[in-house]
Amino acid sequence: LKLKQGLCDGISAHAAEAMGKFIKSGRVVVLLQGRFAGKKAVVVKAFDDGSKARPFGHCLVAGVDKAPLKVNKTMSKKKIAKRTRVKPFVRYVNYNHMMPTRYQVPSEIGAQSLATDQQMDTTDGRIEAKKFIKKLLQEKFVTPPTDKSGKPSKDVLYLRKKLRF
What we know:
Blueprint: H1 2-8, H2 13-18, E1 27-31, E2 40-47, E3 58-66, H3 77-83, E4 87-94, E5 98-104, H4 117-121, H5 123-142, H6 154-160
Antiparallel strand pairs: 1-2, 1-5, 2-3, 3-4
């Protein structure tokens, strides 16, 4: 069956088995369809084989609906606080409607803990998850975690910027 399926997709059976799963928890993706098209998000949990409610490959993502604006030293603390605000979102997205990037958020952010399936079941749970994500992202955007060389993590900086297209 795997051999047939691989050949039908235009991929050899060996190549189909050799390809690993790269949409894992922590991967930064760009959404392509729907209300959040063009927005960046982080994969929280992947469902490669689908679920009962969604019988297709999808994942739970937490993203940035409204990115923080640029600030400079001459601005007041009040203005800086307002401009560094983040508006987050959480939702289930079909694999076909997103594009993975080369970026992966650092493990210290803890992508798996951003939202849970139980929170997504209720409106209150989603609001609670958004509040947690907002707090975490604002904190990480102001002081990005450092990579091995001591520079700010490129992955978090990429997530912070608005996608220009």
